[in-house]
Each structure stands twice: as structure tokens, then as C-alpha cells.
């Protein structure tokens, strides 16, 4: 990266917390997250030079791979774009300050430490006075595929046995009994056939935890659920339920995603 005399890096606060932040936030197809950034000085003008994203480590298939660096992916893609908005309001995801969305694929996600940089200086995007959001959206592996659902199976796919979904009401499953499960994404192909891909092959996004809600600048997209419309939710709201049940638990802390901006003061 060329150092410019008036360059600034805008990064949301946070720190790593051992195993709590060892594995990233899943970016499965239709998943969306966002981080807000404001101008360092509201009286000055800043030009966006680059968008930076750090992939998280994917969950290993076996315990032996627990400490391996897996900041890459084999399934899925990620769209990144900039949207104007204030810190207190949900992102206006339909608005894009870039000429077109940035695309992260398995082919350009090979950096071992996870940091990837997209140079957008030529687009001359100015950071709005009220700030902007970096939005990341998970996509299917192929553009022509359509996301159907997430499936939890009782055994891994072997190419021979038909997939069997977990049935929580199965008479043989006793209350309080644990069972090994396997998570997959189901997508529909143009031919009409369905394909299953393990969720552990899709990208994840690194994040860092913060002690106070005032430091949280991140949002997540909650899809449509029964009697509740799809909407953006601040991470503080997402974590509120956990804090109510476990007020001292580290995993209940708020967090920020590793989505950063390189800006230049004009």
C-alpha cells in the first residue's frame, strides 16, 4: 500500500478475545452485515481510496484442524459496496456510492492473514458528512444459482445415502440428549435440480469485541421470520437477549466487523 501524507484508516473499535473471536461470522447466501464509518473531522473533506475486508477463519471439519488458518473459502462469493447513512439509522442498502459492487470470490481470497484490499480511488467517492456504511452480502457460488434454505442433517453427505434432516420431534430423540449434526446450504440450479454445500466451505467475516454499546458500529440483516418482517438490526439489539440471560458472558459482548476504509483528506 502506498502511504499518502494525508491518508487515514477508518476502523471500528474492538479487540480479539481468544476462541470467542477465532472463527468468523458466517456469510452464507443472502446474509448481510454492515459497518458505519464517519469522517474523522466533520469540517474536512475525505476521499475514499480503498475498501478493506478481513475474512475470518472458517470452522474446521475436525478437531485436528482447530488451530489451522482457514481464511479462504471454496463456496460462495461476497458483494461489497458503500451506502450513505447515519450511525443511528439502518443502512440504505439499495444505494451504492460506487459505480458497481465489488466482488470477492475464492480466486481473490487467498491472503493467509485474511486482509483483502479493493482500490476505489479512481472513482473519487467522497465520504458524506453523515458518514457511510460498508455493506457485505453473501452470494451463491454461481450467479445462476438460487439460495433455497439452510439444512441441518444427521449425517454428512456421502453421495450414496439420501440426505436426512434433523427431526427434533423424533421419538428416539430424548429431551436434553445431544446429537451430532451437519450444516448445509441448499441451492437451486437452472436445470431445476438442487445442490447441497457444507456451510463450512463458505466465507466468514472477522470481528472484534467491544466493552460498551457506544463503541458498536455494526449491523446485521435479519431475514423474514414468522410474523416479523426482514430488517436491519444493530448488533447491540442482536446481543441484548444474550446479555439479559448471561450478563457477564464474553460471548454476549457487542462486536464490530473488520470492514475498513482507507481515506485521503483533500
Count of beta strands? 17
Radius of gyration: 20 Å
Helix content: under 10%
Describe the sheet with the most strands.
6 strands, antiparallel
* Strand order, sheet with most strands: 6-5-8-3-14-15
Distance between the termini: 19 Å
Helix/strand class:
mainly beta
Order of helices and strands: EEEEEEEEEEEEEEEHEE
The overall average pLDDT, rounded, is 89
Query: How would you sum up the global shape?
Result: globular
Uncertain segments: none
| Tally of DSSP helical segments | 1
Percentage of residues in DSSP E strands: 25-35%
Protein name: DUF3108 domain-containing protein
Organism: Hymenobacter guriensis
What's the structural blueprint in terms of helices and strands?
Elements: E1 7-10, E2 25-26, E3 32-37, E4 46-54, E5 77-84, E6 102-104, E7 115-119, E8 132-139, E9 146-153, E10 182-188, E11 194-198, E12 204-205, E13 207-210, E14 218-222, E15 231-234, H1 235-245, E16 254-257, E17 259-265
Antiparallel strand pairs: 1-17, 2-12, 3-8, 3-14, 4-7, 4-17, 5-6, 5-8, 9-10, 10-11, 13-16, 14-15
Amino acid at each position: 500500500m502506498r502511504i499518502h501524507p494525508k491518508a487515514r484508516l477508518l476502523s471500528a473499535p474492538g479487540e480479539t478475545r481468544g476462541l470467542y473471536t477465532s472463527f468468523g461470522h458466517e456469510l452464507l447466501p443472502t446474509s448481510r452485515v454492515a459497518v458505519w464509518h464517519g469522517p474523522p473531522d466533520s469540517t474536512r473533506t475525505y476521499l475514499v481510496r480503498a475498501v478493506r475486508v478481513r475474512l475470518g477463519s472458517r470452522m474446521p471439519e475436525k478437531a485436528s484442524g482447530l488451530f489451522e488458518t482457514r481464511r479462504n473459502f471454496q463456496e460462495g462469493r461476497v458483494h461489497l459496496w458503500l451506502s450513505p447513512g447515519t450511525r443511528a439509522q439502518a443502512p440504505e442498502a439499495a444505494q451504492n456510492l460506487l459505480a458497481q459492487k465489488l466482488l470477492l470470490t475464492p480466486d481473490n481470497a487467498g491472503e493467509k492473514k485474511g486482509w483483502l484490499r479493493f482500490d476505489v480511488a479512481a472513482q473519487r467517492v467522497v465520504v458524506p458528512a453523515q458518514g457511510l456504511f460498508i455493506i457485505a452480502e453473501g452470494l451463491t457460488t454461481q450467479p445462476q444459482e438460487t439460495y433455497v434454505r439452510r439444512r441441518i442433517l444427521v449425517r454428512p453427505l456421502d453421495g450414496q445415502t439420501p440426505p436426512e434432516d434433523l427431526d427434533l420431534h423424533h421419538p428416539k430423540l430424548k429431551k436434553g440428549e445431544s446429537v451430532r449434526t451437519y450444516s448445509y446450504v441448499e441451492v437451486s440450479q437452472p436445470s431445476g435440480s438442487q445442490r447441497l454445500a457444507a456451510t463450512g466451505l463458505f466465507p466468514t467475516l472477522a470481528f472484534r469485541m467491544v466493552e460498551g454499546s457506544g463503541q458498536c458500529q455494526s449491523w446485521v440483516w435479519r431475514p423474514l421470520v414468522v410474523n416479523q418482517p426482514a430488517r436491519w438490526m444493530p448488533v447491540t439489539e442482536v446481543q441484548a437477549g444474550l446479555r439479559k440471560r448471561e450478563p457477564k458472558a464474553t460471548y454476549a459482548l457487542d462486536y464490530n466487523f473488520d470492514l475498513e476504509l482507507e481515506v485521503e483528506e483533500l
